[in-house]
């Protein structure tokens, strides 16, 4: 069975991704900071076997937790096929560029950019060890890495500059790792969501409701975690081995410039 690691796979978009990957037949290991939540039991039920879902309590911002996540999955299943760098945080509270402080900057960049950047490095090293010597271009990728960025990688929000910077960084990290890891047989893609209904956006629900009332996007509704999970499922299927570094928008067309 193929093995997927999903950071922040316990709530919101990440939980949608975990559900979809379990249904697609992946064994799934989740990294998140809270004690094991109820959702993990639900995923084990969905999987039909408790040993198909593992939960590691830790932070993607802590490089020691990366090693724990990888060691745990390799010890349990002996392989690694997919990393979904999903975990992310919003600035709390949102603050104008002229007011926002370095604490929020360091926290947001630490979780959203530095963490996934080094988890990608650790994951790739482990995949290369498990893969053994290079034997030429495979019909399917040796492994796939999917980074969750955001429409904020390109759209400015002047009340959360740190978040926008972190997601622009994720977009560049995707290109960097796609170029470096292609010769190892590993492909790297970016999923760029728009406005998805989760705990993260609950704080700004009234703002997004009003934007949707005014016709925010061509597919003019809130996105759902399952919408993002469907894109992960496509990119994780291993059926497009000559593509890497792709940006897949899941935003109802919000990124399309219109006059
Ligand atoms: P969410 O509802 O706040 O869920 C975040 C998930 O990440 C939770 O499972 C949380 O679990 C985990 N998490 C938070 N900090 C962590 C850390 N330091 N280490 C490991 N796990 C951590 O957020 P979401 O809306 O699902 O967002 C998921 C991703 O999509 C994020 O990268 C976000 O930036 C991106 N995104 C979201 C939207 C949107 O509209 N919602 C749009 C574009 C992009 P614990 O609480 O247990 O740690």
Structure description:
It is a single chain. With 259 residues, this protein is α/β, with parallel strands linked by helices. It has a single domain, classed as 3-Layer(aba) Sandwich (Rossmann fold), CATH 3.40.50.720. The chain is 44% helix and 15% strand. The chain contains 8 helices and 7 strands; from the N terminus they run E-H-E-H-E-H-E-H-E-H-E-H-H-H-E. The chain has helices at residues 12-23, 38-47, 63-77, 102-131, 161-181, 199-202, 205-213, 225-236; strands spanning 3-7, 27-32, 53-57, 82-85, 143-148, 186-193, 247-250. It has a 7-stranded parallel sheet with strand order 3-2-1-4-5-6-7, with helices on both faces. Helix 1 (12-23) packs parallel to helix 2 (38-47) and helix 1 crosses helix 8 (225-236). The chain is globular, with a radius of gyration of 18 Å.
From the alpha carbons, calculate the radius of gyration and give it in angstroms: 18 Å
The tally of domains stands at: 1
Report how far apart the termini are.
48 Å
CATH level 4 superfamily: NAD(P)-binding Rossmann-like Domain
Q: Quickly give the CATH architecture.
A: 3-Layer(aba) Sandwich
Portion in beta strands: 5-15%
CATH topology: Rossmann fold
Q: How many DSSP E strands? A: 7
Stretches with pLDDT under 50, minimum 5 residues: none
Helical/strand content category: alpha/beta
Bound molecules: NADP nicotinamide-adenine-dinucleotide phosphate
Element string (H = helix, E = strand): EHEHEHEHEHEHHHE
Strand order in the sheet with the most strands: 3-2-1-4-5-6-7
Biggest sheet details: 7 strands, parallel
Number of helices: 8
CATH class: Alpha Beta
pLDDT averaged residue by residue: 98
Shape estimate: globular
Percent helix among the residues? 40-55%
């Amino acid at each position: 069975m193929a093995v997927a690691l999903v950071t922040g796979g316990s709530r919101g978009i990440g939980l949608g991704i975990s559900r979809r990957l379990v249904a697609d037949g992946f064994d799934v290991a989740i990294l998140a900071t809270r004690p094991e939540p109820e959702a993990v039991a639900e995923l084990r039920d969905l999987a039909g076997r408790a040993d198909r879902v593992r939960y590691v309590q830790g932070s993607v911002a802590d490089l020691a937790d990366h090693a724990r996540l990888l060691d745990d999955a390799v010890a349990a299943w002996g392989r690694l096929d997919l990393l979904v760098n999903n975990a992310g945080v919003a600035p709390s509270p949102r603050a104008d560029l002229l007011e926002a402080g370095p604490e929020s900057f360091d926290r947001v960049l630490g979780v959203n950019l530095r963490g996934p950047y080094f988890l990608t490095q650790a994951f790739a090293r482990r995949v290369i060890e498990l893969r053994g010597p290079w034997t030429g271009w495979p019909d399917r990728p040796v492994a796939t890495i999917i980074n969750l960025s955001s429409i904020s990688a390109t759209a400015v929000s002047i009340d959360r500059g740190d978040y926008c910077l972190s997601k622009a960084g994720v977009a560049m990290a995707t290109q960097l790792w796609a170029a470096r890891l292609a010769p190892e047989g590993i492909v790297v893609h970016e999923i760029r969501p728009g406005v998805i209904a989760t705990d993260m956006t609950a704080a700004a629900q009234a703002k997004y409701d009003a934007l949707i009332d005014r016709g925010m996007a061509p597919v003019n509704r809130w996105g759902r975690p399952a919408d993002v999970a469907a894109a992960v499922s496509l990119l994780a299927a291993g059926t497009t081995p000559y593509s890497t570094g792709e940006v897949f928008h899941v935003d109802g067309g919000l990124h399309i410039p219109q006059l």
